Structures are given as C-alpha cells and as structure tokens.
Amino acid sequence: MSPLDRWYVDLSLVAFATGLAVLTVAFGVTGALRTAVIVPLVTVLPGYAFVSFLYPAVGNSAVRTFDENQRGLRNPLPTKDGIDALERTVFAVITTLFIVPLVAVAANFTPWGITLYPLLFGTTGLTLSLTVGGLIRRYRLPAERRYTPQISEFLSNVTYSDAGDAFGTADSKRRLFNVALGVSLLLLVSSVGYAAVNPPQQDGFTEFYVNTDNVTGDTQSMYPAQFAAGETRTLSVNVTNKEHEQMQYEAVVHIQRTNGTGADAQVLESNRVAAQSVTVDHSATRTVNFEVSPSMRGSDLRMVVYLYRGEAPADPTMDSAYQSLRLPITVA
C-alpha cells in the first residue's frame, strides 16, 4: 500500500478512539483502562481533528533563491507550505486546551449543567464532526496534496540537521525547540487530563431524611406526628447513597417514651415497631415506607429511625447507628 492510500488512517484512529471512549463510559468501565481511553479525548483528539480540518494538505518545505543584485541576499531562504507532523501534534494539544473548556462552558447552559454526559457527548460530537470535515477536505484535494501521516516525517522533524547551508543550524534549533515544546505540552495536558477523569474521591456518606414528596401547603407536619390509639400511619424516609459503591442498609423504627426532648433525653421505654432492609446503588435514592402503629400513648413519645450499613443489631442505639432520625409524636 502506498503512502497516498493511507491518508485517512490518522483520522480513522481519532474516530475509533473517540467512539471507544463513549463505550467505556457507557459500560461503566473503571480503573486504568478508563483513564487510558478518556485522557486522549480531553488532551489531544479534539485538537487534532480541528487542526486536520484546518490543514488538510501536506506540509512542504523548500528553498527559495533570490537574485542578490535585486534583493541583496547571498543565501537561499527556506520556505514552508502547511504544517508538518510535529507541528500538528503541538497545535493539537494547544487547541484542545481551548476546545474542552468551551464545551464545558456550553454544557453549563444546558439543563444538565457541567456533568459527565454533557461533557462527554459535547466533546465527542465536536471531535467526530471535525474528523468527518477533515476527511472530506482531504478527499477533495489531489492525491499528491493530501496529508498522509508517516513516522519518517515525524522523525525527520526531531533529528538534528547536518546540512551545510546557511539555515541548517537555525532549522535544527527550531526542530529541537518544537520537540521540547511538544513534550512539555503533552506532559502538562496529560496531567490535567488525568486529574479531570480521576478527581480526588471524597469520603463517602449517606443522606437519611424524611420523605417530603407528598407535602403540600395544607400539611401540618412533615411526618405523621399525631396518632389516635390503635391507628396505623405510614412513615416515609429517603436513603441516598454517596458511598461510591452499592450499599446494603437496614432501617429500624422504635417508639420511645422519654423524660424530655433533645439528644440528652433519657429513654424510659422503647418498643421496636418496624424494620426494613434496602439495597441502594451509588448516587441513587430509595424511599423506605414503614407502617407504624404505636402501642404507647401520651405526648412524651418519639419515633426514632436507626439506619445501619449492613445488618442492624438486636438493640440499636444512637451511638451504634450510622444515621438516625428523632421525630416527636403524640398518641391520643
């Protein structure tokens, strides 16, 4: 296969890597594989597609001579048309630094905000659009003018030139500078990209609160606070898992008689009236409904809901519970 038959290879790899990133997130892949797939998407691929769209033609270097009687130039001058492989790499990294934040700004104005999926689909959509545009622009050029990625071209830009002409030394310095700049940018952006796809994980926690979905302006209490003797009412609580993994919880409801209010109130009598186990995925919320029928009467009562990670003990307490709710009630 001749080089002219491979003009689409680099952009095909860009499209493949972009699609692979989407599939990696869609299937919930984690760890080093996720990092290896996502980091290129936020450091190089969008910029490379953009540069390929702007510069579909191969870069040509030449030496132009001038009439020294008219110009006073004794040495030939180098000229350049387009950009070479090394410059494409450097420009790809630089432009990605602008493209990804712009996608984030656009995502901020969507109903979903700056979250994973708007950023993912915005970045991949823009990258694939530019990739298709770059392929079309290359295809419309004559075969000999299409940019074709070649390892030899890249290596020629990073090797020292021994040419004896007047611009050989300057050209070699330019190449070395481009290499240093490209490596520095790749290291910088790769570190930023790694931090973006692997942010420091916060300590896990669980939110535990009374469910208020059915509360209206006529509701006198956020939970069933008034009971008639022998009456059964429904207490709804929500459990939101922020522990970074699926969790198994058990919630236990006690009716207690106390000698006061607050956390320091002494418990005089306690009856277990309901219990329920629930499994909650990370970032999910489950509503737990308890059918509560107090057997004690009076105005010095409270419902206490204990939440445990895993199985609850036979004798739950405030100190041993992971979370708890204290809800004063009256049973007439």
Automatic annotation (TrEMBL):
The keyword Transmembrane helix applies. The chain crosses the membrane at residues 7-29, 35-55, 90-110, 116-136, 176-197. Residues 15-330 form the DUF1616 domain. Keywords: Membrane, Transmembrane, Transmembrane helix. It comes from the Archaea. This is DUF1616 domain-containing protein.
